[in-house]
Amino acid sequence: MKISVIKGVGHYVPERVVTNHDLEKMMDTSDEWIVERTGIHERRFFDPETDTVANMSAKACKMAAERAGIAISDVDFIVLATITPDYFFPGSGVLLQRELGLEGIGALDVRNACSGFIYGVSVADQFIKTGMYKTILVVGAEIQSSAMEMTDRGRNVSVIFGDGAGAVVMQASDEEDKGVLSTHLHADGNFAEELYVKDPGSSRKERLTKDMLDGTSIRAYMNGNLVFKHAVVRFTEVIKEALAANGKEKEDIDLLITHQANLRISNYLQEKLALEPEKVYNNIMRYGNTTAASIPIAMSEAWQENKLKEGDLLCLAAFGSGFTWASTLIRW
Ligand code: UT7
User: Fold this and answer.
1) Residue 238 sits in a domain of what CATH number?
2) Which residue, judged by its Cα, is nearest atom 1 of ligand 1?
3) At a CB cut-off of 8 Å and minimum separation 6, what does 23 contact?
4) Which domain holds residue 253?
């Protein structure tokens, strides 16, 4: 049976840097509060004239393909994870396919928020193992800034999120002890309303009303304390699940990349798993929480910085809206 290897990884972040001090001018917040509670110093905001989820994704994909040494035309399937698609429908997967000039190949959209990228890797892994596809682009991309309310009312959410895109090329291989070793996907819909955007929802009498536009239901709601408490438990569980499934110990991990939700969560996991600090990669300081994009952006930067080398055991883990959580172990 074929296995799937990650042949290349790339990313794109918009040029506009928004610091905590910039946010202080828009709402009642402070650099001190944001750094202490989240670890974030700055994030990127898209340029409405030039950046879209689809074209940021395309830039990340082109970098991943170049690093993989493949032609974009070799790609036979696309999986795009985003909760901020260009349109209500169709999903941005088809727009990415158009951007890349890959007319005719299938494009799947994944809406599993912060866990979306790992869900996407899992789907691609199954397609490759069954022989259905050989070269798949798995992408996470978000434009969160246009949905944020840059006022005191929105400050508990708007200071956290940022924009960007990351992508990997996954390819079929006959190698052994290499590539995606396993993936682990979970969800608990009982907590769906603890981190969500309610409107414009399909089960409302009218999709969009003036009341909605004036109110908060079109904005992200997050019960931050509750999400935090569940995140630290589920992250720990799902990392241990991946290790156990492969007969590995936490000491075997060469690099842990978690969804960049909060530096305190990442630091907690590093201590709980007793990993050396250099074995946990973080870039939330520079980009904030970019939801589905955070893991592939971090993978791409870790690779660039030579922190992800051939033969390394990479653990990816995510937790977020749904709740959903997921992990994978990858032999690089
Ligand atoms: O990516 C999906 C997964 N997401 C996560 O895992 C996020 C998990 N949650 C968190 O990271 C944290 O809960 C937050 C960073 C969102 C918030 O940190 P916190 O330590 O839980 O703060 P809090 O919500 O308990 O708020 C503490 C105080 C409140 O004031 P009072 O009631 O103590 O007077 C808030 O009103 O901080 C206030 N506050 C702010 N102050 C300055 C809330 N937002 C801000 C802000 N600037 N931006």
Assistant:
1) 3.40.47.10
2) 261
3) 29, 34, 150, 158, 159
4) 179-331
- Residue 1 has what pLDDT? 87
Report how far residue 111's alpha carbon sits from residue 113's, in angstroms, rounded to the nearest whole number: 6
The verdict on 102 and 232 lying in the same domain is: no
Which pLDDT tens digit goes with each residue over 115-138?
Answer: 999 999 999 999 999 999 999 999
Spacing, Cα 200 to ligand 1 middle (Å): 25
Domain check: are 204 and 142 in the same one? Answer: no
Ligand 1, atom 42, lies closest to the CA of 29
Q: Which atom of ligand 1 is nearest to the CA of 155?
A: 48
Q: How far is the CA of 148 from the centre of ligand 1 (A)?
A: 15
**26 shares a domain with 116:** yes
Tokens of 131: 């022989």
User: For helices 294-304 and 116-130, what crossing angle results, to 10°?
Assistant: 80
Same domain, 167 and 18: yes
Where does a domain end: 173, 196, 211?
173
pLDDT digits (tens, 9 = 90+) for 225-250: 999 999 999 999 999 999 999 999 99
223 lines ligand 1 (CB under 6 A): no
| Closest ligand 1 atom number to CA of residue 29 | 47
Task: Cite the active site residues.
Answer: 114, 259, 289
SS3 283: coil
Domain edge (last residue) among 128, 151, 173? 173
| Amino acid type, 240 | K
User: Does ligand 1 lie within 6 Å of residue 228's CB atom?
Assistant: yes
- Structure tokens that stand for 96 in this block: 């990415």
* Whether residue 160 is found in the same domain as residue 226: no
For the chain, the domain total comes to 2
Cis peptide leading into residue 323 (ω within 30°): yes
Q: Which parts of the chain register pLDDT below 50?
A: none
What is residue 24's predicted lDDT score, i.e. its pLDDT? 98
Name the pTM for this structure.
0.98
